[in-house]
Design a protein that fits this description.
Pathway: Amino-acid biosynthesis; L-tryptophan biosynthesis; L-tryptophan from chorismate: step 5/5. The protein is an alpha/beta fold and 385 residues long. 46% of the residues lie in helices and 18% in strands. The chain has two domains: 144 residues, Rossmann fold (3-Layer(aba) Sandwich), CATH 3.40.50; 210 residues, Rossmann fold (3-Layer(aba) Sandwich), CATH 3.40.50. The radius of gyration is 19 Å and the shape is globular. Bound molecules: pyridoxal-5'-phosphate.
């Protein structure tokens, strides 16, 4: 998981499949990022913001009661405790700082569960930037709390009524909008998707999760590294950031997708949103709509680096149903006093299933990135429980 070069290639995946009008804009972002990342001034400002505003490092929590029930040693990397309630803010803080450095005055973003939109609105307010967030109408209905939070923070939320009215359509709309606004606006992508340099840059900003967890595991575990590293995968940013910290170790990497949005587990190679990757497609190569109770996993594809890790066999991608995720959420809440986001509960559900099936050997150490907290999901949960 290194620098994918100027072409942004991860094996046969990645690249920059964008209209002529966005080629220069993507190049400008790449140049700015390459410069900033080796500038100690930029790195210092980012580190300071992450510490004093976002609350990093987030803790590594051993969950004793659930571990005892499952016969394993489960540790949670607590991104739910980061400011605004998910890992999204790590990436947004990096990109917003970059946008300021580039002299841009407005952030454009897409959002699914609303966590990326809230993070964007938050950091925009902090740095004195404007924010315009595109969100599918269906997600606006099921994530009302986050829509309110974004507006509260001064962001403009633009409803997207096309297609499945979820994340895929919001992403298309945001990219289209950026075409006419590259002069003063920066497109702040929320996951490891989109054209080069986004998948690489977003993974680099999220790598803080894996790097912190690696150090925390070194002091917490006698073996130093966990046997398994598990994270949920929508586009794949919390997983990519986590995996990056462990890819050079013996840990087995497992990405958990929603059954109805399993780009890495069930998809085929294709091009969408500016990159070649794995997407759910029908027999004619048309993208199939994703369906998941978790708005943040309701995406038909996966970032190109995950496609590459899958092909290499370095990471494995598995799926979990809506029902399994909801019952895992309740179980974690009632054994540990932690209400995870429904997205994160997918990772918990796989661990519960795999431990029960003997697929995780008894006593195995498992690091699981808990990508966010469940406050945003109360209305969905009220319908489900
Ligand atoms: C957005 C989101 C996800 C999915 O996004 P990734 O890019 O796959 O990490 C997962 N969990 C939460 C809480 C989210 O907000």
């Amino acid at each position: 998981m290194s620098d994918p070069g100027r072409q942004g290639r991860f094996g046969e995946y990645g690249g920059g499949y964008v209209p002529e009008s966005l080629v220069a804009a993507c190049r400008e972002v790449e140049e700015a990022f390459r410069e900033a990342w080796v500038d100690p001034g930029f790195r210092g400002s980012l580190a300071r913001l992450l510490a004093v505003h976002i609350g990093r490092p987030t803790p590594l929590t051993p969950v004793r009661r659930l571990s005892a029930e499952l016969g394993i040693n489960l540790l949670l990397k607590r991104e739910d405790l980061a400011h605004t309630g998910s890992h999204k803010i790590n990436n947004v803080t990096g990109q917003a700082l970059l946008a300021s450095r580039m002299g841009k005055t407005r952030l454009i973003a897409e959002t699914g569960a609303g966590q990326h939109g809230v993070a964007t609105a938050t950091v925009a307010a902090l740095l004195g930037l404007k924010a315009t967030v595109f969100m599918g109408e269906r997600d606006i209905e099921r994530q009302a709390l986050n829509v309110f939070r974004m507006r509260m923070l001064g962001a403009e939320v633009i409803p997207v009524g096309t297609g499945s009215r979820t994340l895929k359509d919001a992403t298309s709309q945001a990219m289209r909008h950026w075409v006419g606004a590259t002069e003063d606006s920066y497109y702040c992508v929320g996951s490891v998707i989109g054209p080069h340099p986004y998948p690489w840059m977003v993974r680099t900003f999220q790598r803080v999760i894996g790097d912190e967890a690696r150090g925390q595991c070194a002091s917490e575990l006698s073996t130093g590294v966990p046997d398994y590293v598990v994270a949920c995968v929508g586009g794949g940013s919390n997983a990519a950031g986590t995996f990056a910290g462990f890819v050079d170790t013996s840990a087995r990497l497992v990405g958990v997708e929603a059954e109805g949005g399993a780009g890495a587990a069930l998809g085929r190679a294709g091009v969408l949103h500016g990159a070649r990757s794995l997407f759910l497609q029908d027999g004619h190569g048309q993208i199939v709509e994703a369906h998941s109770v978790a708005a943040g996993l309701d995406y038909p594809g996966v970032g190109p680096e995950h496609a590459y890790l899958r092909d290499l066999g370095r990471a494995r991608y598995v799926t979990v149903t809506d029902d399994e995720a909801i019952s895992a959420l309740v179980r974690l809440a009632r054994t540990e006093g932690i209400v995870p986001a429904i997205e994160s509960a997918h990772a918990v559900a796989w661990v519960i299933r795999a431990a029960g099936a003997g697929e995780l050997p008894s006593g195995a150490t498992v690091l699981l990135t808990l990508s966010g907290r469940g406050d945003k999901d109360v209305s969905t949960l009220k319908e489900q429980l």
